[in-house]
Write a structure and sequence with these properties.
seven-stranded mixed β-sheet, globular, nine-stranded mixed β-sheet, about 500 residues, 18 helices, alpha/beta, about 20% strand, about 35% helix
Length: about 500
C-alpha cells in the first residue's frame, strides 16, 4: 500500500521522475517541470507498479496525482554539481550516491551506497546519537539507501538486551512489514560480503581514474551472482504450523526425524500433489494453467496482456513451474497472446500451439473442437474440451454466438462441468441456446470489469440454468483441484466450493 503523502524527487528521466519516499520509490508522471530536490505532496495513493523488473530497483508505485510544495535546495545543488562534472567523475559519483545504473548489461551496481553504509556502521559503534543525526542529514541531501534499513534497525535494537538470534529474527520480521520486496534486492542482501570492496569504493570516489578497475570488479561480481539457483514454489503457512505442532507433540528436538519432516513440509507445496486447473487473474485477459500432480511443468492456454505479465509470472513461479509443455494461443488478441516472448525468456517453452490440433499432456488429452472458418479473430479462437477423471472442461477463447451455434451443430450437445465463458462475459457470446446445450455446473469469467464485462444478460442466462459463476475481478485466481475422492474449487479470496460429482 502506498501510504506516505510526501516524497522528494530523486532523479529525472525522459518522461517521468523517480521520487524517494524513504521506504520505497515511486514513478511520477507529471506535466510540471520537476527537478531533483523538489518536495511533492501526493493527493491520493498511487497504484502498484506491475513492471517486475522495477521491483529490484525498489520502485513500487506509479501515478501522476501530485503537487509540488517546495524545493530542498541542498539536494538540488548536489545533484546539479555532480552533473556538471566530467562524464567519468559524474558516473562514479552517481554509482556511489544514487541508485543509478550508468553501465548497461550489469545485474546491479555494487558500489551504490556501500561507502556510506560502512561509514555509518562504524560511526554507530562510536556514537549512536551523532550517527543518527548524520543519518537523517544524509538522507535529506542524498537518498535513503535501502541498505541503511539494517543500520537503523540495529540502532533501535541496541537499546534492548537481546542475543544475536533474537535480533536477527526481529530484523527479518520488521523488514517483511516494511517491504517484502527488499529480499529480492541483491544490493540490500549482499553488503556484508564486500568489506574490502567498499574500501575500494572510497578510492574510486577520490580517484576517478580508477573507474576502469572499479567496473572490472563489478563485472566479476555480477557474473558470479548471475547463476540463478532459486527454487520456485511457495511454502505453506498451514504446513509450518503443522510442523511446529508435530515437533511439540512428539518432543522432536534433534536428529534425522526433524530434518525429514522439515524437508517434506518445505517441498510439499512446491511438488503440488493435486491435479488442478487454474483460471489465473490476469486482469482483462485470459490465461489458464493445467498442471498435473508433482510436476514442474504445465500446459498454458493464453498468456494475458503485457500489462499483467507480472501477475502471470508470479503465479507460475509460486506453482513451481519451470517448463511449459504446451503453450496454446487461442487467437491473436493482445489480451490472449501478449506475453509469449516474455514467457520464453523466463520458462522453457517446448511447444507453441497456434493452429488447431489435439494435445496430449502426460496421458491427458485436450480435444480440439474444429469450427467453420470465420472472418474475424474472435470466432477463429481455438476451442478445446478436456476431461479429467469425472470432470470435463470447455475452453472457448473469445467465440461469439455465431461460433457457439456452429460448435453445437458440429459437436453438441456437450457434457460440460466447468466452462470458461467466452470473451470475458461479453454479450456477444454465451447465448441461451449454447448454455442450454452444455449445462455447465460452474462457469468462470476472466475479466477486470472493463468494457462492461461481464454483461448482465450473460449472468442472467447462467443463473437461469443454475450455473454458479466466478469472476476473476472479484474472486482473483480461480483454481479447480481434482482428486480421486474429491474435487473442489478454491479462489484467491478464500472461497471454497466442493464439486458434487
Amino acid at each position: 500500500m502506498d501510504f506516505m503523502p510526501l516524497g522528494m524527487v530523486e532523479e529525472k528521466r525522459e518522461k517521468y521522475v523517480i521520487a524517494d519516499k524513504i521506504f520505497y520509490k515511486i514513478k511520477v508522471f507529471c506535466e510540471d517541470d520537476l527537478k531533483p530536490g523538489d518536495v511533492l505532496y501526493f493527493k491520493s495513493a498511487f497504484k502498484k507498479n506491475s513492471i517486475s523488473s522495477q521491483i529490484n530497483k525498489n520502485i513500487l508505485f506509479e501515478g501522476e496525482d501530485c503537487q509540488k510544495l517546495f524545493c530542498f535546495y541542498p539536494r538540488a545543488f548536489i545533484y546539479e554539481t555532480i552533473h556538471s562534472q566530467e562524464t567519468l567523475t559524474k558516473e562514479t559519483m552517481e554509482k556511489l550516491l544514487y541508485n543509478i545504473d550508468p553501465v548497461q548489461g550489469l545485474d546491479f551496481d555494487l558500489g551504490y551506497g556501500l561507502a556510506s553504509y560502512y561509514f555509518f556502521r562504524f560511526l554507530n559503534k562510536k556514537s549512536k546519537r551523532i550517527s543518527l543525526i548524520l543519518f537523517f542529514i544524509y538522507s535529506l541531501f542524498f537518498v535513503f539507501p535501502i541498505k541503511h534499513y539494517l543500520i537503523l534497525i540495529d540502532m533501535i535494537l541496541d537499546h534492548f538486551s537481546l542475543n544475536k538470534e533474537k535480533k536477527a529474527s526481529i530484523k527479518i520480521i520488521v523488514l517483511c512489514c516494511i517491504n517484502f520486496s527488499l529480499f529480492q534486492n541483491y544490493s540490500f542482501l549482499l553488503p556484508l560480503l564486500f568489506e574490502m570492496y567498499s574500501l575500494f569504493s572510497f578510492l574510486v570516489l577520490l580517484c576517478p581514474f580508477l573507474e576502469g578497475v572499479y567496473l572490472f570488479l563489478i563485472r566479476i561480481f555480477s557474473r558470479l551472482l548471475s547463476f540463478d539457483l532459486s527454487i520456485r514454489g511457495t511454502v505453506s503457512l498451514v504446513g509450518i504450523v503443522l510442523l511446529i505442532s508435530i515437533f511439540r507433540r512428539f518432543h522432536i528436538q534433534k536428529g534425522a526425524g526433524q530434518y525429514v519432516i522439515l524437508l517434506l513440509v518445505t517441498l510439499l507445496p512446491i511438488h503440488d500433489p493435486f491435479f488442478h486447473v487454474s483460471f489465473i487473474d490476469v486482469g482483462q485477459g485470459d490465461s489458464i494453467m493445467i498442471k498435473k500432480p508433482f510436476r514442474h511443468s504445465c500446459t498454458l492456454i493464453d498468456t494475458g496482456s503485457p500489462f499483467n505479465y507480472y501477475k502471470l509470472k508470479t503465479f507460475l513461479f509460486q506453482q513451481g513451474i519451470y517448463q511449459i509443455d504446451h503453450l496454446i494461443i487461442t487467437h491473436n488478441d493482445s489480451d490472449h497472446n501478449g506475453n509469449v516472448e516474455a514467457l520464453k525468456e523466463d520458462f522453457k517453452v517446448k511447444d507453441i500451439v497456434t493452429e488447431g490440433r489435439d494435445i496430449e499432456y502426460y496421458g491427458l488429452f485436450l480435444d480440439h473442437l474444429d469450427l467453420l472458418e470465420f472472418d474475424n479473430d474472435n470466432d477463429s479462437s481455438l476451442v478445446y474440451l478436456m476431461k479429467v477423471k469425472s470432470l470435463s472442461f470447455l475452453f472457448t477463447g473469445d467465440i461469439s454466438k455465431k461460433a457457439e451455434r456452429d460448435l453445437i451443430l458440429r459437436h453438441g450437445p456437450l457434457d460440460v462441468d466447468i466452462l470458461k465463458v467466452s470473451h470475458h462475459g461479453s454479450k456477444t457470446g454465451s447465448s441461451d441456446l449454447f448454455i442450454s446445450q452444455i449445462l455447465p455446473a460452474v462457469s468462470v469469467i476472466s475479466t477486470s470489469g472493463l468494457y462492461g464485462h461481464p454483461n448482465k444478460e450473460v449472468l442472467d442466462v447462467l443463473n437461469s440454468y443454475k450455473s454458479r459463476f466466478f469472476l476473476t475481478s472479484e474472486s482473483g485466481t480461480v483454481s479447480v483441484y481434482i482428486t480421486r475422492f474429491l474435487s473442489f474449487i478454491k479462489t484467491a479470496k478464500y472461497e471454497f466450493v466442493i464439486i458434487r460429482e
